[in-house]
Amino acid sequence: MKKAFYIIILAAVALLPLQALAQSKLQPKTDKYGFYSVVDCPTSLSFIKAATEQQEDGSYNVNIYRGRELSQSFNFEVTSGDLYYLDANFDGNMDIFVGPAASRNYSTILLWDDNLGEFSPMNDGYLNGNFLVNPIKKFLVGQGSASYCSEYYTRYVWKGNRLVVTETLIEITDPNAYKEYGVKRRYTLIKGDNLDKIAANKKVETNNKSKLPAEWRTILKEYGM
Question: Is there a contact between 129 and 123 (Cβ–Cβ < 8 Å)?
Fold first, then answer.
């Protein structure tokens, strides 16, 4: 009787911290600047059984299983059905990044909810860009391209299950092509992400990369810029 009791207790203890233990072991190592890329993350895990299935309309179902039984299913209009596993919101649990981590493509994140014991979609729909994660300072950065002569870099923090943009750095190789935004220099750093109000939200506007805040100079180095 006592032996059976201990087996039950050990099984429960083994299951309860599974997410947190896995996060600590499978979290990619950060580089010297404190970042890792989404594409460095595992694409499969033994304790999370998930698969994508493309639909006739081009969207993807993300199916999550408990054992052999389908537990949850979500439909997303992402660009591809690639899955990456990471602690996206820094709560110690493994989440699922759905879609390609690349410019001009759509992706989203399924967040593990400890209270519900299941995954929930992040609010605000879809993401666009090639993503870096900074687990030390707890923010994400996405790189995207708006046109042949522009790149944008977006810094996100979590507010509940929403990703909120704190700053956006716009790099324009041909400022004359963006007169409607009031862009006159190569680098324009703004508060938030309201691109229709760049002139009102400007923090820094410069042709000299060295005049950007240190954090943004580091982010540009991360992207090889």
Answer: no
